[in-house]
Amino acid sequence: MIKNELKQFFNLSFSLAKSEFKLRNEGSYLGILWYLLNPILLFLLLFIVFSKNLGANIESYDLYLFLGIIMFNFFSITTSESIWGILSHKTIFKSINFPRSSIIFGTVLKHLFSHLFEIIILTGWMLFSGVNIISILYYLPVLLFFILFIFGVSLIISSLLVYFADISNLWDFITKVLWFVTPLFYTIDPNSNASILNQVNPLYYFVTAGRDVVIYNHLPELNIILGIIGFSLIFLLVGIILFKKLEKKFTENL
Amino acid sequence: MERIIVNNLSKSFKNNTRSKNFLARLVSPSIKEKKEKFCVLKDISLKVDEGEMLGIIGKNGSGKTTLLRLIAGIYEKDSGSIKLNGNLISVINLFIGIEDRFPMKENVYSLCTILGLRNKEIKKRYKQIIEFAELKEFEGVELYKFSNGMIQRLIFSIIVHCDFDILLLDEVLEFGDESFKSKCIDKIQELLKKGVSIIFVSHGLESIKNYCNRAVWIDDAVIKEQGEPSKVVDAYLNSLEK
Fold this sequence. Notes:
The structure holds 2 protein chains of 2 kinds.
Chain A: H1 2-25, H2 32-50, H3 61-82, H4 90-93, H5 101-129, H6 139-163, H7 167-181, H8 196-199, H9 202-214, H10 222-253
Chain B: E1 2-16, H1 22-27, E2 35-49, E3 53-57, H2 64-72, E4 79-84, E5 88-91, H3 104-114, H4 119-132, H5 148-160, E6 166-170, H6 178-193, E7 197-201, H7 205-211, E8 214-219, E9 222-227, H8 229-241
Parallel strand pairs in B: 3-7, 3-8, 5-6, 6-7
Antiparallel strand pairs in B: 1-2, 1-4, 8-9
């Protein structure tokens, strides 16, 4: 029974993601390039501005910055879209009973496809800069936990939006705060006072773990590893429980 | 075999004036919240057998659609029990799962997946679906270019080609031209013969009389009358005249 439900869940998520992804990239010759242009341009801008000051002491600042941007991008684009996942599907929610969270997971998968293209660009770049590209394989486990984390956050914010209409404004603000708090284009000495903020910032753990394995070719420190596992599982669990609990009343509030 | 058994089902909605604004609640928690309960269904009991089509009639707002949503598991019941023997598909709205910007083919695939079909099976049935809907030449056309009638035809066709034992229909036969309507009715008869059970909510009293085996009249949250369709329809009409 549960096996069948899970099967339908993944089947549905995947097929929704596939058709949305296909649709987005149809009708323009540049297709996926348009999506990739955004992080690349942002990267160029920040690189030009910061490479001589904030990034001067960071090893391989170009890869450091690019990986940070695409990981943050994956998180912020996915959550800002999936927050509307339930509200924008209210007709179908009120008409058919089906695994509703697959709509949310479909959005995560759709942006995962784009993220993979960014990873391909990163790999090409690493090849170009002479970094060992085998290390990209070690990104996979980090990415897996990152996906679980993003899915959990998406479940939480999308179900809260049904009850609190202004959560979306709040979320815009939170994303902006995270963009500055997470060391994406700068670095923080782990022993300084400013790093205290990062102890509670889940994105810090994921981005650091990603950089450690991909760029610097070493295992992340134990607290980072525990951080990504802990944060992803906690958010996923809270997300699933909250969604399951609120799901039954969604339809009456849509 | 009984496909649907509903016993003493009750449902009420909360009609509260609570603000949906998080900030507003935070800033002024003292704003008075009025909570009213609004009873939609009270002590509803009914049964539907294998191969039987049950019609439900009643005024607007009498709780017909809520009853379907409760049976389909879309709403949570307050009390009572609902027992289902078999796979259920509900069609409360014929514009479900439509992504306007997608071409027809994508829409068929995603709606079929939502309704529980696997990719392999959809591939097999795809041709039948668009042939039944008479939309063969529009395969790659985006749905926003379709007329309402075309979309309804498509969705109806998708639904009847899925696998189910119980079908809940809400006001969905009142579309399409006469020839398509009779095709739908033939299809429904065919499904009934296969043992599918159908609950059919409609204001089309003639359809209820002609196609249903039994009818239920819901008024003010309770069942006023049930039994022979023509009798129930007459009772309903009488009450309207009063």
